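Record now logged for everyone:
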Amino acid sequence: MLPSINTFEQRFGSLRYFLAPMAGITDTVFRTLMREMGAQVVISELISSEGLVRGGKKTRELLAFSSLERPVGIQLFGSQISKLADAARIVEQEGADFVDLNLGCPVRKVVCDGGGAAWLRNPPQLGQLLCSMKKAIRIPLSIKVRTGWDEQSKNVHEVAHIAAESGVSWVAIHGRTRAQGYSGLSDWELIRSVAHASRVPIIGNGDIIRAREAQQKLADGYAHAIMIGRGALKNPWIFQELLGHAIESKNFLTLIDRHFALAIERKDRTRAFLSLKKFLGWYAAGCPHCSTFRSRIFQTHNVDELKEISFDYFQSISLGEKHDDGNPFLMGGHG
Protein backbone atom coordinates (compact mmCIF):
# COMPACT_ATOMS: atom_id res chain seq x y z
CA MET A 1 0.00 0.00 0.00
CA LEU A 2 1.09 3.58 -0.63
CA PRO A 3 1.68 5.84 2.34
CA SER A 4 -1.49 7.65 3.41
CA ILE A 5 -2.03 11.10 1.98
CA ASN A 6 -3.95 13.99 3.49
CA THR A 7 -2.82 17.05 1.55
CA PHE A 8 -5.26 16.70 -1.34
CA GLU A 9 -8.29 15.77 0.71
CA GLN A 10 -7.74 18.35 3.44
CA ARG A 11 -7.59 21.23 0.99
CA PHE A 12 -9.49 20.18 -2.12
CA GLY A 13 -11.25 16.87 -1.45
CA SER A 14 -10.51 13.57 -3.15
CA LEU A 15 -8.46 14.59 -6.18
CA ARG A 16 -6.69 12.03 -8.31
CA TYR A 17 -6.67 13.29 -11.92
CA PHE A 18 -4.64 16.36 -12.93
CA LEU A 19 -4.25 18.12 -16.26
CA ALA A 20 -0.51 18.49 -16.83
CA PRO A 21 0.96 21.93 -17.51
CA MET A 22 1.92 22.18 -21.20
CA ALA A 23 3.60 25.18 -22.82
CA GLY A 24 1.43 26.82 -25.44
CA ILE A 25 -1.49 24.56 -24.55
CA THR A 26 -2.77 24.90 -20.98
CA ASP A 27 -3.91 28.50 -21.21
CA THR A 28 -7.02 29.71 -19.39
CA VAL A 29 -9.23 28.59 -22.28
CA PHE A 30 -8.08 24.98 -22.42
CA ARG A 31 -7.90 24.72 -18.63
CA THR A 32 -11.51 25.86 -18.33
CA LEU A 33 -12.59 23.44 -21.04
CA MET A 34 -10.83 20.52 -19.35
CA ARG A 35 -12.29 21.37 -15.94
CA GLU A 36 -15.71 21.24 -17.57
CA MET A 37 -14.68 17.92 -19.11
CA GLY A 38 -13.78 16.42 -15.74
CA ALA A 39 -10.15 17.32 -14.95
CA GLN A 40 -10.00 17.68 -11.17
CA VAL A 41 -6.99 20.03 -11.03
CA VAL A 42 -5.47 22.22 -13.75
CA ILE A 43 -2.11 23.98 -13.96
CA SER A 44 -0.96 26.83 -16.17
CA GLU A 45 1.73 26.64 -18.78
CA LEU A 46 5.14 27.64 -17.44
CA ILE A 47 5.54 31.33 -16.65
CA SER A 48 8.85 33.16 -16.34
CA SER A 49 9.48 34.36 -12.79
CA GLU A 50 11.75 37.06 -14.20
CA GLY A 51 9.05 38.34 -16.55
CA LEU A 52 6.41 38.21 -13.83
CA VAL A 53 8.49 40.20 -11.35
CA ARG A 54 9.32 42.77 -14.05
CA GLY A 55 5.61 43.13 -14.77
CA GLY A 56 5.83 42.20 -18.44
CA LYS A 57 2.44 42.52 -20.16
CA LYS A 58 2.57 39.18 -21.98
CA THR A 59 3.76 37.39 -18.86
CA ARG A 60 0.94 38.89 -16.80
CA GLU A 61 -1.54 37.72 -19.42
CA LEU A 62 -0.37 34.14 -18.90
CA LEU A 63 -1.26 34.52 -15.22
CA ALA A 64 -4.95 35.09 -15.95
CA PHE A 65 -7.44 32.46 -14.76
CA SER A 66 -11.14 32.28 -13.93
CA SER A 67 -13.07 30.88 -10.98
CA LEU A 68 -14.31 28.10 -13.28
CA GLU A 69 -10.80 26.60 -13.25
CA ARG A 70 -10.46 26.09 -9.49
CA PRO A 71 -8.49 24.40 -8.11
CA VAL A 72 -5.90 25.97 -10.39
CA GLY A 73 -2.14 26.21 -9.97
CA ILE A 74 0.28 28.60 -11.64
CA GLN A 75 3.58 27.07 -12.78
CA LEU A 76 6.74 29.16 -12.52
CA PHE A 77 10.22 28.68 -13.89
CA GLY A 78 13.46 30.54 -13.46
CA SER A 79 17.01 30.41 -12.18
CA GLN A 80 17.16 33.03 -9.41
CA ILE A 81 15.93 32.16 -5.91
CA SER A 82 14.89 35.70 -5.02
CA LYS A 83 12.95 36.19 -8.26
CA LEU A 84 11.15 32.85 -7.89
CA ALA A 85 10.16 33.71 -4.31
CA ASP A 86 8.89 37.13 -5.40
CA ALA A 87 6.99 35.59 -8.32
CA ALA A 88 5.38 33.07 -5.95
CA ARG A 89 4.12 35.97 -3.81
CA ILE A 90 2.56 37.55 -6.91
CA VAL A 91 0.83 34.28 -7.79
CA GLU A 92 -0.60 34.08 -4.28
CA GLN A 93 -1.75 37.71 -4.42
CA GLU A 94 -3.56 36.96 -7.67
CA GLY A 95 -5.58 34.28 -5.86
CA ALA A 96 -4.27 31.02 -7.34
CA ASP A 97 -4.85 27.87 -5.29
CA PHE A 98 -1.22 26.76 -5.38
CA VAL A 99 2.17 27.54 -6.90
CA ASP A 100 3.88 24.88 -9.01
CA LEU A 101 7.60 25.02 -9.77
CA ASN A 102 8.89 23.65 -13.06
CA LEU A 103 11.94 21.47 -12.46
CA GLY A 104 11.53 19.36 -15.58
CA CYS A 105 11.72 21.58 -18.64
CA PRO A 106 14.36 20.05 -20.98
CA VAL A 107 14.42 22.90 -23.51
CA ARG A 108 17.92 24.22 -24.10
CA LYS A 109 17.19 27.94 -23.71
CA VAL A 110 15.59 27.27 -20.31
CA VAL A 111 18.21 24.92 -18.86
CA CYS A 112 21.14 26.94 -20.20
CA ASP A 113 19.85 29.84 -18.13
CA GLY A 114 19.71 27.60 -15.05
CA GLY A 115 15.96 26.99 -15.01
CA GLY A 116 13.77 23.92 -15.48
CA ALA A 117 15.59 20.60 -15.23
CA ALA A 118 18.92 22.37 -14.57
CA TRP A 119 17.95 22.57 -10.89
CA LEU A 120 18.19 18.77 -10.66
CA ARG A 121 21.96 19.07 -10.98
CA ASN A 122 22.31 21.01 -7.74
CA PRO A 123 20.17 19.45 -4.96
CA PRO A 124 21.59 21.60 -2.09
CA GLN A 125 20.73 24.83 -3.89
CA LEU A 126 17.34 23.35 -4.86
CA GLY A 127 16.62 22.89 -1.16
CA GLN A 128 17.42 26.57 -0.56
CA LEU A 129 15.11 27.54 -3.40
CA LEU A 130 12.18 25.47 -2.15
CA CYS A 131 12.54 26.76 1.41
CA SER A 132 12.63 30.35 0.16
CA MET A 133 9.55 29.90 -2.00
CA LYS A 134 7.68 28.12 0.76
CA LYS A 135 8.46 30.91 3.26
CA ALA A 136 7.18 33.48 0.76
CA ILE A 137 3.65 32.04 0.49
CA ARG A 138 0.86 30.51 2.57
CA ILE A 139 -0.76 28.53 -0.25
CA PRO A 140 0.65 25.09 -1.19
CA LEU A 141 3.86 24.79 -3.17
CA SER A 142 4.21 21.82 -5.53
CA ILE A 143 6.94 20.81 -7.96
CA LYS A 144 7.05 18.98 -11.28
CA VAL A 145 10.30 17.13 -11.92
CA ARG A 146 11.97 14.61 -14.16
CA THR A 147 13.73 11.50 -12.90
CA GLY A 148 17.12 13.18 -13.23
CA TRP A 149 19.41 15.00 -15.61
CA ASP A 150 20.45 11.87 -17.52
CA GLU A 151 20.64 8.10 -17.15
CA GLN A 152 23.74 8.32 -14.98
CA SER A 153 22.28 10.86 -12.56
CA LYS A 154 18.73 9.82 -11.73
CA ASN A 155 18.20 11.54 -8.41
CA VAL A 156 14.42 11.86 -8.13
CA HIS A 157 14.45 10.01 -4.78
CA GLU A 158 16.77 12.68 -3.37
CA VAL A 159 14.74 15.48 -4.91
CA ALA A 160 11.49 14.13 -3.43
CA HIS A 161 13.17 13.92 -0.02
CA ILE A 162 14.41 17.52 -0.30
CA ALA A 163 10.90 18.59 -1.32
CA ALA A 164 9.39 16.95 1.75
CA GLU A 165 11.98 18.54 4.04
CA SER A 166 11.27 21.96 2.48
CA GLY A 167 7.51 21.85 3.01
CA VAL A 168 6.46 21.07 -0.58
CA SER A 169 2.91 19.69 -0.62
CA TRP A 170 3.26 17.22 -3.48
CA VAL A 171 5.65 16.18 -6.23
CA ALA A 172 4.68 15.41 -9.83
CA ILE A 173 7.17 13.16 -11.62
CA HIS A 174 7.50 12.87 -15.37
CA GLY A 175 9.15 9.48 -15.73
CA ARG A 176 11.93 10.53 -18.11
CA THR A 177 15.30 12.18 -17.65
CA ARG A 178 16.09 15.58 -19.09
CA ALA A 179 18.40 13.92 -21.63
CA GLN A 180 15.55 11.73 -22.90
CA GLY A 181 13.34 14.65 -23.80
CA TYR A 182 10.20 12.84 -24.94
CA SER A 183 11.91 9.76 -26.36
CA GLY A 184 11.67 6.29 -24.90
CA LEU A 185 9.08 5.37 -22.29
CA SER A 186 8.15 6.92 -18.98
CA ASP A 187 9.75 4.95 -16.12
CA TRP A 188 6.72 4.12 -14.00
CA GLU A 189 8.62 1.60 -11.89
CA LEU A 190 10.85 4.42 -10.66
CA ILE A 191 7.81 6.59 -10.03
CA ARG A 192 6.29 3.81 -7.95
CA SER A 193 9.53 3.39 -6.01
CA VAL A 194 9.52 7.08 -5.09
CA ALA A 195 5.81 7.03 -4.23
CA HIS A 196 6.32 4.22 -1.72
CA ALA A 197 9.29 5.94 -0.10
CA SER A 198 8.08 9.53 -0.10
CA ARG A 199 6.52 11.40 2.82
CA VAL A 200 4.58 13.61 0.41
CA PRO A 201 2.08 12.59 -2.28
CA ILE A 202 3.55 11.63 -5.65
CA ILE A 203 1.73 12.36 -8.90
CA GLY A 204 2.75 10.14 -11.81
CA ASN A 205 3.04 11.51 -15.32
CA GLY A 206 4.06 10.20 -18.73
CA ASP A 207 2.55 8.25 -21.64
CA ILE A 208 -0.98 8.01 -20.20
CA ILE A 209 -3.34 8.30 -23.16
CA ARG A 210 -6.18 5.98 -22.13
CA ALA A 211 -8.42 6.12 -19.06
CA ARG A 212 -7.87 2.46 -18.23
CA GLU A 213 -4.10 3.04 -18.10
CA ALA A 214 -4.49 5.76 -15.48
CA GLN A 215 -6.97 3.70 -13.46
CA GLN A 216 -4.64 0.70 -13.51
CA LYS A 217 -1.67 2.78 -12.39
CA LEU A 218 -3.62 3.94 -9.33
CA ALA A 219 -5.00 0.48 -8.61
CA ASP A 220 -1.49 -1.00 -8.73
CA GLY A 221 -0.07 1.64 -6.39
CA TYR A 222 2.20 3.44 -8.83
CA ALA A 223 1.28 6.91 -7.56
CA HIS A 224 -1.17 8.79 -5.37
CA ALA A 225 -2.59 10.64 -8.36
CA ILE A 226 -2.20 10.76 -12.14
CA MET A 227 -1.27 13.70 -14.35
CA ILE A 228 -2.37 13.60 -17.99
CA GLY A 229 -1.04 15.88 -20.72
CA ARG A 230 -1.04 14.96 -24.38
CA GLY A 231 -3.59 12.22 -23.75
CA ALA A 232 -6.20 14.94 -23.16
CA LEU A 233 -5.54 16.32 -26.63
CA LYS A 234 -5.99 12.92 -28.22
CA ASN A 235 -9.09 12.19 -26.16
CA PRO A 236 -10.65 15.28 -24.51
CA TRP A 237 -13.17 12.98 -22.75
CA ILE A 238 -10.47 11.06 -20.86
CA PHE A 239 -11.20 12.75 -17.52
CA GLN A 240 -14.93 12.03 -17.79
CA GLU A 241 -14.07 8.41 -18.47
CA LEU A 242 -11.77 8.33 -15.44
CA LEU A 243 -14.53 9.64 -13.19
CA GLY A 244 -17.00 7.11 -14.53
CA HIS A 245 -19.32 9.72 -15.98
CA ALA A 246 -21.82 8.41 -18.49
CA ILE A 247 -20.79 9.50 -21.98
CA GLU A 248 -23.63 8.85 -24.37
CA SER A 249 -21.65 10.05 -27.33
CA LYS A 250 -18.37 11.85 -27.83
CA ASN A 251 -19.76 14.84 -29.64
CA PHE A 252 -16.96 16.82 -31.23
CA LEU A 253 -19.39 19.48 -32.42
CA THR A 254 -20.42 20.34 -28.86
CA LEU A 255 -16.78 20.30 -27.74
CA ILE A 256 -15.63 22.53 -30.59
CA ASP A 257 -18.52 24.95 -30.15
CA ARG A 258 -17.61 25.40 -26.49
CA HIS A 259 -13.90 25.77 -27.28
CA PHE A 260 -14.64 28.48 -29.85
CA ALA A 261 -16.91 30.34 -27.41
CA LEU A 262 -14.32 30.27 -24.62
CA ALA A 263 -11.46 31.28 -26.91
CA ILE A 264 -13.30 34.26 -28.35
CA GLU A 265 -14.46 35.33 -24.86
CA ARG A 266 -11.05 35.06 -23.16
CA LYS A 267 -8.83 36.22 -26.04
CA ASP A 268 -10.04 38.17 -29.06
CA ARG A 269 -11.10 36.91 -32.47
CA THR A 270 -7.62 37.20 -33.97
CA ARG A 271 -5.77 35.43 -31.17
CA ALA A 272 -8.57 32.91 -30.80
CA PHE A 273 -8.25 32.10 -34.49
CA LEU A 274 -4.54 31.33 -34.20
CA SER A 275 -4.97 29.24 -31.05
CA LEU A 276 -7.96 27.23 -32.24
CA LYS A 277 -6.20 26.02 -35.37
CA LYS A 278 -3.64 24.20 -33.22
CA PHE A 279 -6.23 22.46 -31.08
CA LEU A 280 -8.41 21.45 -34.01
CA GLY A 281 -5.42 19.76 -35.62
CA TRP A 282 -4.77 17.81 -32.41
CA TYR A 283 -8.43 16.87 -31.96
CA ALA A 284 -8.46 15.46 -35.48
CA ALA A 285 -5.41 13.23 -34.91
CA GLY A 286 -6.29 9.68 -35.86
CA CYS A 287 -9.51 10.63 -37.62
CA PRO A 288 -10.14 9.80 -41.30
CA HIS A 289 -8.62 12.31 -43.74
CA CYS A 290 -7.15 14.32 -40.85
CA SER A 291 -4.18 15.48 -42.91
CA THR A 292 -6.52 17.00 -45.52
CA PHE A 293 -8.49 18.68 -42.75
CA ARG A 294 -5.36 20.14 -41.16
CA SER A 295 -4.23 21.46 -44.52
CA ARG A 296 -7.60 23.20 -45.00
CA ILE A 297 -7.75 24.84 -41.60
CA PHE A 298 -4.24 26.25 -41.96
CA GLN A 299 -5.36 27.94 -45.18
CA THR A 300 -8.34 29.65 -43.56
CA HIS A 301 -8.41 33.41 -43.01
CA ASN A 302 -10.74 34.07 -40.07
CA VAL A 303 -12.40 32.41 -37.10
CA ASP A 304 -15.84 32.11 -38.75
CA GLU A 305 -14.45 30.25 -41.76
CA LEU A 306 -12.44 28.05 -39.41
CA LYS A 307 -15.53 27.10 -37.43
CA GLU A 308 -17.53 26.31 -40.57
CA ILE A 309 -14.80 24.05 -41.99
CA SER A 310 -14.38 22.31 -38.64
CA PHE A 311 -18.09 21.63 -38.21
CA ASP A 312 -18.33 20.29 -41.76
CA TYR A 313 -15.39 17.96 -41.14
CA PHE A 314 -16.45 16.53 -37.79
CA GLN A 315 -20.04 16.10 -39.00
CA SER A 316 -18.74 14.04 -41.91
CA ILE A 317 -16.89 11.46 -39.82
CA SER A 318 -17.81 8.90 -37.21
CA LEU A 319 -15.85 9.04 -33.98
CA GLY A 320 -15.79 5.26 -34.14
CA GLU A 321 -13.47 5.66 -37.10
CA LYS A 322 -10.87 7.49 -35.00
CA HIS A 323 -7.73 5.38 -34.87
CA ASP A 324 -5.54 5.51 -31.79
CA ASP A 325 -2.35 3.57 -32.33
CA GLY A 326 -1.34 4.07 -28.70
CA ASN A 327 1.80 5.98 -29.64
CA PRO A 328 2.67 9.35 -28.11
CA PHE A 329 2.38 12.46 -30.23
CA LEU A 330 3.22 16.15 -29.90
CA MET A 331 6.72 15.08 -28.90
CA GLY A 332 7.90 18.38 -27.55
CA GLY A 333 7.11 20.71 -24.71
CA HIS A 334 8.41 22.01 -21.44
CA GLY A 335 7.59 19.49 -18.72
